[in-house]
Amino acid sequence: MKKRIVYILSTNFAGSHYLSLLLGSNSRALHAGELFHFGRPVGKCNLKEVNLKDSEVFEGIGPHNIEQVYDIIFSRIDARIEVVVNTSKTIRGWAERFLGNESYDRLYIHLFRDPRALVCRWLLNRELKTELRYRWKLLRSWPRLRPFAEWSPMPAVWMCRWLLQNRAITDFIGRHGLPATLVTYRDLAKETEAEVRRLTEWMGLTYEPRQLEYWSREHIGRRKEATSGSRNRRPTTSICAGKPSWRQSGRRIFAAIGW
């Protein structure tokens, strides 16, 4: 059987790092993080929430050899590892660029989160510069939406972006006939063991209960500050508890715009 690459496709803030850590904690898998950053020009990678852990596995990977990124990674890790989990999330410029690579089997997970939760998350960083950037991204990707992108309330813009991104993922998977499965953030948070078992077996591996204790394993991939925590204890985050706090914090917002 070929080695396998698992692509997690989702919007931002949908829980892709959490899912990757759970799957990558299998003894036959590797949480690699957002590998697409290695293909970006120097100085373009400036994420506040994500750190790259120093590792010889990633040494020397950059735009000049990004097409061989999986060959390089597999050549430097334990030969028993069969699956690399990639949380890059993006289709254009990343997932689509490896469609012709037959050296590995490719599997795709469409991670889906309630848009109201994402609107509340985006509102936490509500600044004029951020809002203008989101409007520009929407306009750049879908020029026909120009009046909407320029003048609609930001929650509506974010909701539209969520819809278009998830539709693009569905279309991408369907257009190319890709082996894919769907998982919701809600199910992942509330039925963690069942979903991790299902996805692990779908990847062709045997489920290991220790995957749920992802913080107890050393990971080499990118990691969110909110989920890195201590390696010796379970992070006390809403991700692990499965508590959708957006239901309380966003109640007035949604009522005001008729949701």
Q: Can you characterise this structure?
A:
The protein is of the alpha/beta class and 259 residues long. It has a single domain (4-115, 169-238), classed as 3-Layer(aba) Sandwich (Rossmann fold), CATH 3.40.50.300. The chain is built from twelve helices and seven strands. Helix 3 (115-123) crosses helix 6 and helix 4 (128-141) packs parallel to helix 6 (154-176). The model is unreliable at 46-51, 226-233 and 235-243 (pLDDT under 50).
* CATH top level assignment: Alpha Beta
Give the total of domains.
1
Tell me the total number of β-strands.
7
Tell me, what's the shape? globular
Structural class: alpha/beta
Named CATH topology: Rossmann fold
The percentage helix is 40-55%
Mean pLDDT, nearest integer?
83
Radius of gyration: 19 Å
Element-level helix/strand string: EHEEHEEHHHHEHHEHHHH
Strand order of the largest sheet: 2-4-1-5-6
Query: Which second-level CATH architecture applies?
Result: 3-Layer(aba) Sandwich
Descriptive keywords:
single chain; about 260 residues; alpha/beta; Rossmann fold; 5-stranded parallel sheet; two-stranded antiparallel ribbon; about 15% strand
